[in-house]
């Protein structure tokens, strides 16, 4: 993020009427982290405050995903699968180029469910976008990382998509809220949160930081811009997916998860490898037993309060369980 871009964003704040719109996100390329693992934040804002994480035994691959607890088991709003493919989205309000009835829109959760079921790489996701029936019923930014070094954002509407390869961005990361750069500038939304997140990343990001940086400096950051801030009353969850270095075991992917408002709830580490047994024998291409397995809730909102000592104990216990004796930063 350049200083000139941030200044331009601040100017637009004075010109564009602001409304409350959901979700703030960041992807950091593995090229910009000390351990080579990409990082992906989704800070979720939604009217549906009852969120949980479920295990799905998909068509080809098992995956865990953030869901609306009362919604059908065909939608996921952030998730990661057994081959290290991870995806999230933020809503966009300026990239639609058709008059499709609203009742046929808002299918982003279905698209991400499908992607987690069958995709291995960012290229697979691109093929999915190309082959989906049109119109797709979406208007969004999709963020994707994989276990082969892929890290990208996609601006997608009903008929076309544009890719932004995070690996090619000089600073090594990209901040996205609720507009598409290729869309109508007069309909940009989320500039306030975009500016806050961009300022923090530009001033404070270093390759040595980890998922905790996103929770503390973004999801729990109460800095205001034009009267708005990143954590809000409609914030329902914050997820940081820590991918793996290219070529490493994809099951080492970690989904650091805050269910509930990050100002009042703590992060819980989730790894798909802890739940794979519930899908039975799960081979590439799927099998009857896996397909028949019902989704299973693996995490739900707990009324723990913001207990940072407990949050740190959970982090250290998880790292010991999965990595043995480690030196804790």
How would you describe the overall organization of this protein?
The chain is of the alpha+beta class and 329 residues long. The protein has one domain (3-323): 4-Layer Sandwich (Penicillin V Acylase, Chain A). It is built from seven helices and 14 strands. The strands form two sheets. It has an eight-stranded antiparallel sheet. Helix 1 packs antiparallel against helix 4 (191-204). The longest helix has 16 residues, at 308-323.
What key attributes describe this structure?
single chain, 329 residues, alpha+beta, 14 strands
Q: Secondary-structure element order, as H and E?
A: HEEEEEEHHEEEEHHEEEHEH
What average pLDDT do the residues reach? 90
| Overall CATH architecture | 4-Layer Sandwich
Number of domains: 1
The CATH homologous superfamily: Penicillin V Acylase, Chain A
Figure out the total of helices. Answer: 7
The count of DSSP E runs of length 2 or more, i.e. the number of strands, is: 14
Helix content: 10-25%
- Structural class designation: alpha+beta
Tell me the distance between the termini. 27 Å
* Largest sheet descriptor: 8 strands, antiparallel
- How much of the sequence lies in strands comes to 15-25%
CATH class annotation: Alpha Beta
Shape: globular
Radius of gyration: 19 Å
Low-confidence stretches: 5-21
From the 3D structure, determine the CATH topology.
Penicillin V Acylase, Chain A
Spatial order of strands in the largest sheet: 9-8-7-6-5-4-3-14
